[in-house]
Amino acid sequence: MADAFHVVCPACDAVNRLPRSKPARAAKCGRCGAELFSGKPIELGGERFKRHVARNDIPVVVDFWAPWCGPCRAMAPVFEQVAQELEPAARFVKVNVDAEPGLAGEFGIQGIPALFVFRNGQVASKKAGMMDPASLRRWIAEGTGR
């Protein structure tokens, strides 16, 4: 196991190298000084999304959603709760499929909410529909191998 891992800054998209020997929760970006982990999902799209999926050494958990979608709005607080509990072990991201139809098409999103876990830049797991916090935590653990 490497003595450090890479995390993309949610503010400036710089790739930061974090030592495993120090707590990551308090880490700040070496370029812009922003907190690397706020315990809240970050909204991404386009190239920013691709950079976070490709360059984070931690799993990236993604909620593909839309503002008009009732189940998506109901899933949002569950996703936020689990993000607060599990960061910095994973990065939590939201992608608005109305604003990012290209990403929705690229990943074959047909129903929302659609949840994906990416590891090493690849889809490790995906699931459509709502989940309660316990089910979401369990699904993430299965998808990340943790």
UniProtKB/TrEMBL annotation:
GO terms for cellular component: cytosol. One of its GO terms (molecular function) is protein-disulfide reductase activity. InterPro entries: Thio2_N, Thioredoxin, Thioredoxin-like_sf, Thioredoxin_CS, Thioredoxin_domain. It holds the Pfam family Thioredoxin. Residues 18-145 form the Thioredoxin domain. Keywords: Disulfide bond, Electron transport, Metal-binding, Oxidoreductase, Redox-active center, Transport. The keyword Oxidoreductase applies. GO terms for biological process: cell redox homeostasis. NCBIfam families: PRK10996.1 (NF008229), thioredoxin (TIGR01068). Belongs to the thioredoxin family. This is Thioredoxin. It comes from Microvirga flocculans. The lineage of its organism: Bacteria, Pseudomonadati, Pseudomonadota, Alphaproteobacteria, Hyphomicrobiales.
